[in-house]
Give the backbone structure.
Amino acid sequence: MTNSWTDIKNTDLVVVMGGNAAEAHPCGFKWVTEAKHHRGAKLIVVDPRFTRTAAVSDYYAPIRPGSDIVFLMALIRWMIENDKVQWDYVKAFTNASFIVKDEFGWSDGLFTGYDEQKRDFDRSSWDYVVGDDGFAVTDPTLQNPRCVWNLLKAHVDAYTPEMVERVCGTPKDRFLKIAEMIGECSSKTKTMTSMYALGWTQHSKGAQNIRGMAMLQLILGNIGVPGGGMNALRGHSNIQGLTDLGLMSNLIPGYLNIPTEKEPDWATYLKSRAFKPLMPGQTSYWQNYPKFMVSFMKAMWGEAAQKDNDWAFHYLPKLDVPAYDMLRMFELMDQDRVNIYFCQGFNPLLAAPNRGKLTRAFSKLKLMVIMDPLETETARFWENHGEYNPVDSAAIQTEVIQLPSSCFAEDEGALVNSGRWLQWHWAAAEPPGDAKLDTWIMAQIFNRVKALYQTEGGVFPDPILNLAWGYADPNEPKPDELAREMNGTALGDVFDPKDAAKMLTAAGKQVKSFAELRDDGSTACGCWIYSGCFNEDGNNMARRDNADPSGLGVHPKWAWSWPLNRRTLYNRASADLNGQPWDPERPIIQWTGEKWEGNDVPDISPTAKPGEVMPFIMNPEGVSRLFSRGMMRDGPFPTHMEPFESPVQNVFNARMRGNPVARVFESDVETFGDASEFPYVATSYRLTEHFHYWTKNNVVNAALQPQGFVELSVQLAEEKGITNGGWVRVWSKRGEIRAKAVVTRRIKPMICDGKPVHVIGIPLHWGFVGAAKKGWGPNSLTPYVGDANIETPEYKAFLVNIEPAVGEAVS
Amino acid sequence: MAGRQFSESTDEILSLRPVEVRRYVTFTRINHWFTALCFILLMLSGFALFHPALFGLTALFGGGQTTRWLHPFIGIALSVSFLGMFVQLVHLNILRREDLVWTAQIGDVIAGHEERLPELGKYNFGQKSVFWGMFWLILALLISGIMMWYQYFPDLVSVETRRIAIFVHSVSAVLIVLVLILHIFAAVWTQGTLRAMTRGTVTGGWSWRHHRKWLRELARRQSSKPAE
Amino acid sequence: MNIPVTQATAATAVAAATDSPRTAVSNPPVQPMASNLGQAAVVRSSAGGPVAEQPTALTKVAKLIDISKCIGCKACQSACIEWNDTHPAIGENVGLYENPHDLTDQMFTLMRFAEYDNPDTGDFEWLIRKDGCMHCEDPGCLKACPAPGAIVQYSNGIVDFIHENCIGCGYCISGCPFDIPRMNPVEHKVYKCTLCSDRVAVGQGPACAKACPTQAITFGSKDDMTTLAAERIEDLKGRGYANAGLYDPQGVGGTHVMYVLQHADKPSLYNDLPDDPSISGVVANWKGATKPVGLAAVGLAAAGAAAMALFSRGNRVTVEDEREAQLLVRDEMDSVPGSTGRDV
Amino acid sequence: MNIDLSRRGFLKLAGAGVAATSLGALGFGEAEAAELAHVRDFKLVATTETRNTCPYCSVACGIIIYAKPGDDGKRRVTHIEGDADHPVNRGTLCPKGAALKDFVNAENRLTQPMIRKPGATAFEPITWEDALDRIARALKDDRDANFLQTNEAGVPVNRWTTTGFLAASATTNETAYLTYKVVRSMGIVGFDNQARV
């Protein structure tokens, strides 16, 4: 989220598209009802199903799963056509005026540079024209036909309301009414917020869905302002934290990167991360990258990381592929190229796509280690549960070790909420039986492996032997020790760069914030964006002053928000070129003539003059991007792409299947189904009564929605002879499930490209362990393909068939 | 053989001086008193739940919960028991022409001028009314009682029907208690009656006075028995 | 930084809530607190059970359920289960979102879902109503109950069951105009929402109102809730719901659980919420006239019969009657031709 | 004789009825049966309160955990409720959060390490010592066998692809950071977390 949960109360219009906030985030959704009640805000819901969010909306429109880009581009087109543009914002704070290279273009649904063999674009043409001075060329008058604004106008021209009706199945009048409501938020004093979640991410072009809305928000001038923003409603309680901390193949805490093979040394690695400003006088904050990186290496390897060994650069692995993400690992497993796999609080057997493939892949492991507070299907993938898990245990040679871990009630530490607040919590009880804290388990594993290397030697033991492990009890590092390590410590005295005589922090003390981090090895910091969370003021994450002096829902002294306790990202953009708030009634920060001040921590240097330094300091341009250059693999503008399994062909290019650059493993190609065999569109989701597969173990939540079901329209039910509450069989090319049928008027057939499209909703929760009735997850059906940029699986749009089935099978 | 129109086969003149007549055999008397016992228990437990002022009666049964579950079972017992009575007594309780005359001359009944009334069989219209009153009210109580027997039949009828059932049950209960009072009163007021249900016999005078046709038939029956 | 853990000690003084709570948004105490809901606050009690002569005058409370804010998430059900330590069964799907499928003795509140195609706007609406005890000012359950003190009404308006006194007859189930109370088939006691009387008694709001994520359920004084409702109704009218209104049915004297309805002209749209509920005439008659009249009739009859038995001579059999009987028997026996004699 | 007896009997009966009636009217029954009105004992009395955060979604609602010692002397959770002081949830909780107690105390909580041997049809208990030693041994062996120090071009790559680690989504930052350190120090690249899905 760019903004915080409590900030939503400042909005005038909430658009829930690509999500189901009321069901997935009920307590956060409170701030929507608050905005409706006290600000008269309106709520729009666009969703294939009439959800419980829609139940309290002011306006609802249906949409075919996987067609969101068309809807969003059509909204942009409508805004431009009807002059619903926050012009001052667009001209000053976006790259609308930047001139793009002449070679860049788009035709037949593809941008320039496509290589069908590689399934990749050559993105070199997707960039600005850069002048001899090294700065990008712009046309502030927006007259140049090659400026971003004019290219955008041309790009969205095809996305007419009629096109929306044709591709999305959304009635034209519904679309136009929504466009009109949204258009009102181009006013400087009206804001719209976008609340989305997996409804946008779980597509083969998920990132482009989100970009589409982000662009719309920029055009309306809604990024950085109270009540605005792009608000990704993160799923799990610390998904944000784990992402911040880089627990991914290619990340280092604080959104730094693991080097690739093309960066064989420190100098090369840093060279591609120079982040030289693309416009004169701009702050390009990533120029501090080396400070963050060196401090991280010092936190990891302490004394072993020195300037002369490039800060132990080779202790880091180098990637040969963009990422060894979950899907790639399961693919490698299936190829018998993985031996050991750890699942820490994760149930991939039900969470990853194409369960059949997963079972096959897990069966090829030598050892699987589970750390979990609860029983999971993954831990028991080898156990026969009749039709619910029809495996031959004897044939599975995988050893499985299941380690009982603690849960939230029993441990201490911080979780990062969707609004980037780090909130500390304390242990209330002791783990049951012999269950142990995760930190203890990780320390035990590490210490034992280290001891083996110490006694036996082995391959490249250095990074293990030298890992910084200065914890009071090496067997159980304490949460506050780890938090302090993440915050960062001065290893030597840290001085003010502007005044070498002024010592900011003495050696041995906690650094105050990442502003004190250095690239000379005098600071260590585990996660630079968290720097400031546990400094010499104490544990700021444990703060509990809920005061809100501004009344804008800032709560500056409640817990701690990264970065620097800033509650709204890009908040500099909430003020105009003179530094005055666009909306005087919602002033979040303003320029006093000398510095930035206000209700939030300014997202810019406090002395950066408003007319000179632009708000988007994390971009070398200083402005936001309507045209994303080569940053995304599938295009600088979002363009319509059908799901890999779609009932209709891409209107731009009938030959194009799904996202043309999404990664498809060879073995999975044949598992994609066609509309001839699988005529119905399925979409998967979670019900508000449940939390993924966890609450299966909870008798209360199991009672509130006890049994697996699918939802379908009255019309489809009649067509197929399916009765409400009766059994159905749903199958795709990859597997089948049985479930009860919920026949409802909340799902209605749509007409797309002249033919009726039926949507079948498949909620997830059920498996073969737990208190709830046994059942299947939708992942028995879903295709094994992910988003082109981030590999999130396409769970929200795929094809199935359905028929009535008979009662409970014997298991 | 002389016809048996006004008497049971077990009714019999037992002695002549003085005349003593068997009115009820032992089985019938046990049946009656068992029914009566059930009735009393039902009345007590029913009254306890009927009016708050009488809730204290639940103490006799060991509290409200016990009273609540016991009452319907006693009701079933009574119904079965009464059915036995019904089978034994029903044919002499069918209304006859003389019952109309009796009813028309109810004043003479109350005044004790029975000589002005027609001769009656084993039962007079009052007794028949008690019989049929009991029958219909027990039937109503049984049916409505089952409808409101929540422990075993929670979903037998709709809430609306159950409300009516409860209403019918309580009104019927009041009526049947009134019938009972009439029954006991008549038994007491008409002296010499009670022994019919205690000893099983009545005096000849009682029979002559109240049920002369019955007595007459018994005498005829016993005189007309074939010779040994 | 405040202290994260507090340990209550037995030595802590017993505090008491002086009046009804005005909100559900507060954290409950762990120190012993005196309850203000006891015999002293009872204004009505079933079947002539004991009431306080001068009941503690507590502010009337109400729970306001704003259906236009309700997202049907069932947090109220969940919070209710956890607070009241009930155990609803894990059932099955029968094609509905209602789970359990109805109120039970283990589920005091239930989200009911109604799909409605609004003919006036052409829009589809999903009307979700939290069902549960309405805490009537004139409670039909209390009226129907035959067990003294098994159902009481406190001066703050809460209608509560005193389970020790419940005899399990189920009359309250028939007496309720909203079909709310449910029998526990094992204990033979009837259960329903208590409005979390144990929480209210120590100054806390009901668990459901505290939990409700969108604050569609709010709790406070009935006056405050009525004012809040008016504000919400105004907002809804501004959003095109011309018939938005408050559901506080006067047929039962008003209720201490009220709804803000988008379509207050048609409460029955919301899964058969009664349009104009009142205590059934049958129940009223049964508990009204029948009781005293019936008892009087029985009493009078008994007394009359007793008096007559005492003071009138009764119908006696005379000596002449006995003689007449002997004559008759003799005559009848003899009169029969072919008689072989007396078979006595 | 009969008559008199009968009359006495009747009077007795009538008298009993009147007596019962009067007793009832005098409140005989209530004094005996009616429990005075009262509410349930407040169940949080004498519990400990701990501030915590709901582990489900990222609204991260503030919660208060109420606990008291169980039979084994260990502190056990008896109730969980929203923290009214929390600026985001203001004491509210969703249907999952409101039922957290039954998550913590779920029957399916794991309480001891288990091992499933190759081809076996069931888990069997194993001690922590043995389990951790087995894991460490397996890691060391696999790493030594499959760690790739340089690629074909001779560039140092120091990666290990035959072992993977899937991290959680509800562990604390502190656990996550420690996990990061351990996994990265070994050179594991098959590293991912729930954010992927």
